[in-house]
Amino acid sequence: MQPASGKPAACNFLAVYRLAAATRARETALALALFALVQAAGVLHPVAAAELRLARRPADPYGSPRPGADEAHVPLATSLFFDLRIAGDGQDVIARASLNVSLRRDDGVEIALVRNGQVASGVRGWLRSGQTDGQPQLLVYLEPQALHPLTRYTVQIMCRSHKGLELLEADRSWQFTTEAASSECRMEFAFDLHQPQVTWQRGLFTGYGTTGFCISQALRLATYARMAEVRRWSPHAWSVQRHFWLTGREHQATFLMGGLPNLVRERETRRVSGMQAEGDRVGLLLEDFWGHEQYGIESNRPLAPDYHVGDEVLIYDAQRSARTKVVQVDDAAKTLWVSAFQPEPTAWELAYSRPPPAQPDPHMPGLFASGGCHVCKFSPPGTAAYYWGRLDQEYDLACSRFGQRLVVNFADAPGDLALDGRNWTTAKDYAQLHEVVRQIAGHIIDRYGERSLDFVWSVFNEPDLGRLFWRADWNELQRFYDYTTDAVLRAFEDRGYDAQRVFIGGLELGGIFGTNLRLREFLAHCSPSGEAAGALEHNAAFADPRLAGRRSQRVEALCRATNGRGAPCDFISIHAYNRSKLMADKLIRAKQMALEVDPEYFATLWVNSHESCPGWDLPPDPAYADSYLGNGYFSTWCADVARRRLARASEDPRYANGEMLLTFWAWPNPGLGGGCDCVREFRVDDDGDGRPDRTETLPMPILHFLGLLGQFGPQYLVLPEHQQGGHVVSGFASQGDGVVRLLLYSHHMFDTQSRSSAAFTAVVRLAGLLPGARRVRMYRFDRQNNSYYELARALRAEQDAAVELSPQDEQQIEAALTNLASGDADARAAALMQLHRLGPRARGALPRLLGLAATQQDPAFLAELLELMRSISGSAPITKAQYDALAARARLQISEQWQQVVTPDGTLCLETVLPGNAACLLVLDTPTQ
User: Fold this and answer.
1) Regarding predicted confidence, which is higher, 109 or 618?
2) Per-residue model confidence as pLDDT tens digits over 790-825
3) Could you read off the pLDDT of 161-215 as tens digits, one per residue?
4) Is the pTM higher than 0.85?
5) C-beta of residue 801 within 8 angstroms of C-beta of residue 779
6) Which residue, 452, 448, 473, 450, is CA-closest to 463?
7) Mind listing the pLDDT tens digit for each residue in 360-397?
């Protein structure tokens, strides 16, 4: 989730997750889904005065405008997408009738696409008004008739606002060049099965990570079942899961929330229900925090045993914190008197941000209140108390019921251990952190036994994104890592396991600056001999005398041999939401940096990616949805990333390791929309009354594609890369158990809609086979094979036409939104009714409704807004016949099957045609099968 090449703006996240925190499981899914409608399609430069601009976002791979400026090899059937914004005046509006768009060829011929706000004859597309981050916008999507090959086109735009702003001169035009005319290109590959091969441990794409915790019971059971079906014939596929995030709590509204575990509080912590300043001291009126019983904390505990004069305490709410000293304890008045602190008592948010829940969600155990003000012990720290309900439910489901390996992720100081009482920072006391992590890890080990040795134990989440995910400095990051990893390892040793078998590491770097990774100081700290500016020289856990006798043997052995230097680090994880080449380059660069720091210690270091996909921030460009709808782009993106990593490993075997996980939202893709996932959820109308009668979950092509890919290995042969225009054609092979598996693919990194008319004949000559007959099974994955893409696009077009807005509809929506924000109860009621009547046609109002809901303090009005958003945002039901047709195309099918004879010299020639963004997997059985 990255702006340009990184994460989306925090303000959008905050709006989404404040709303998400106010909902239960299904409502949370809706609130997260609405994130699609608040994402910026581009980046505008800061302005001093109001300007009408073209939003620009680099193609990586989803850009705006599209095709991008000076882009080459653009498909002849390309569509166009761009986003116009008014920056600096949220009250102005883009005058749609003033919009004129044309394409001009180099020979001077001009093709009209939009005339005076109307899509021109022979051109398909739409214009949609909206608002993002308070900026009025106009989204434009156009599909012109086929363009000429190898021709430079200039996109020309004229537009103005109602207040007379003209589109800036620099944004009125840009150029791109089309690809060559369609012609079949022949490419030959040859390899010998006896030549040296790459040994890749585990697998390539082996699982997924999600954006919430304890949400699978409500939202993902059908997904797990589909994955389990694939693992019956491909055990390594879809076998790893990373939940987000283990140490998080719902105490404060924050982004990336959803069923967080709320694992740890302190027995001494109280809620502050009132503050009274009196001279140089402040009285804190205290009560039990909401949900304390779940942690085994008795109610109405006296204050005196918990707080003593001179203790340092931490006072915190969702936005601020302060540390001060206890000066008096008054149990009779339930008041803790402390030295005066800043800010003043009137600045603190004492009330819970909404009424605490009356009963738990049936899919999500535990009752937790959001917001409020609390006081906890700082020095000395308090006594940790644990709640295991959500952790056990989610991990039991994934591990015990569905047999998945887990990525256990300690991202920050849990609960009241945090330095300022809030998420995403380090601990107030590292010895306490060590003990708490040891207890959490021990609980997991006790519950899952020896299987936990196969888990991935990871620390941090994207700390390079600063205040989003790590609000301490990198010195503290290194200390946090030392204490956390040592505690995990000690938990295994306490139970008689060999800590050398524990796979531990982390960082989970966001990597938003391409291959410029903030990695060196961390690697140098973990290395026993590496040097880098900013690297702490010694292992902080080893140097802490408080941990004498409590450290792990693995850390003791490492640091005693190196004068206190080094930390266990079996892997690092780099997150990547980029085109295939850049993702592979990031992971390769990470290993290169490790070898530069310490080629001996990091020779076997794995470089994983526990978050990856072409992009998941749901831009409004239909090309994004197309790329995940089954047009071949997503499958060949995975193939190209995997092949690039294998190619580097064939040059240097030290690069031959690392698992990659895809990133999914918390809920399955709704209907024909959505983004990165392996399934889609359809509402089916069986009786034709227009209302859904059941919900069904169908595989996306990627589910089966990665299932077949999971059968490859561990030995690989890598084919060379052929570049033709914007396409890469390549592949790789593996053999084992008497079976040869071969993947051939073509991939165009910027053709996200798979519109290219290119085709390639791949001829592969295999040597090193035993003579005799072979059965060859071919599985094709492209927009026509093992895919419902063409049918889905037609159904989506029908649904889109049914909700197309008229100018009158837009005027009604704008008036209704104004009335909803007015505060007038009667006007609000009328506006709600008006938007309900418009139904799905009012879907464009969702971003502003979301923003209104995110700041809403009135629970009744918030409930009405949520109900409105549910009614206008749900995916349209499909008929039984439509569902059956989709289901038939969703099944994995052998595309072709034949017998072929290996020549006496042990060679076999295979030939297949690959269109653009197509993958072809061939399975060759041995003669005995």
Assistant:
1) 109
2) 999 999 988 877 767 777 887 888 889 889 888 888
3) 999 999 999 999 999 999 999 777 899 999 999 999 999 988 999 999 998 899 9
4) yes
5) no
6) 473
7) 888 899 999 989 999 999 999 999 999 999 999 999 99
Q: How far apart are CA 445 and CA 825, in angstroms?
A: 55
Helical packing angle, 859-873 and 25-33, nearest 10°: 70
Tokens at 917, concatenated: 């963004």
Contact 84, 51 (CB under 8 A): no
CB 766 within 8 A of CB 191: yes
CA dist 644 → 199, 292, 648, 740, 798 (Å)? 15, 51, 6, 20, 39
Is residue 275 within 8 Å of residue 336, measured between CB atoms? no
Helix (H, G, I), strand (E, B) or coil at 494: helix
Q: What is the model's pLDDT at position 23?
A: 35
- Structure tokens, 443: 């609980």
pLDDT at position 310 is 98
Residue 809 burial (C-beta neighbours within 10 Å; 0-12, 13-18, 19+): middle
Pairing type for strands 321-330 and 240-242 reads: unpaired
Please answer whether residues 760 and 746 qualify as being in contact, where contact means their C-beta atoms are separated by less than 8 angstroms: yes
Flag the least confident range among 128-142, 236-250, 323-337: 128-142
Radius of gyration of the chain from its Cα atoms, rounded to whole angstroms: 29
| Secondary structure of 46-94 in HEC code, one letter for each residue | CCCCCEEEECEECCCCCCECECCCCEEEECCCCCEEEEEEEECCCCCCE
- The residue type of 64 is S
Instruction: In whole angstroms, give the CA distance from residue 621 to residue 614.
Output: 14
Please name the amino acid found at residue 823.
G
Mean pLDDT of the chain: 91
What length does the chain have? 929
Read off the pLDDT of residues 587-628 as tens digits, 9 standing for 90 and up.
Answer: 999 999 999 999 999 999 999 999 999 998 888 999 999 999
- E strand or H helix that includes residue 813: helix 807-820
Exposure string for 378-394, b = 16+ CB within 10 A, e = fewer: beebbebbbbbbbbbbb
Distance of CA 419 to the CA centre of its chain: 27
Count the alpha carbons within 13 Å of 531 in the hemisphere toward its beta carbon.
0
Contact 15, 851 (CB under 8 A): yes
CA–CA distances in Å: residue 126 to residues 803, 804, 805: 12, 9, 10
Decide: 741 and 889 in contact? Cβ < 8 Å.
no
CA–CA gap between residue 536 and residue 661 (Å, rounded): 31
User: Looking at this protein, which amino acid is placed at residue 2?
Assistant: Q
The two structure tokens encoding residue 31: 């609130």
For 829, the token pair is 């009621």
pLDDT tens, residue by residue, 474-505: 999 999 999 999 999 999 999 999 999 999 99
Q: Is 561 exposed, middle or buried (0-12, 13-18, 19+ CB in 10 A)?
A: exposed
Q: Which residues share a beta bridge with 71?
A: 176
Contact by Cβ (8 Å): 916, 758: yes
CB-based contacts of 800, cutoff 8 Å, min separation 6: 126
Locate 765 and state its tokens.
Answer: 């000559």
- Asked if 542 and 556 touch (Cβ cutoff 8 Å), the reply is yes
The residues near 737 (Cβ < 8 Å, ≥ 6 apart) are none
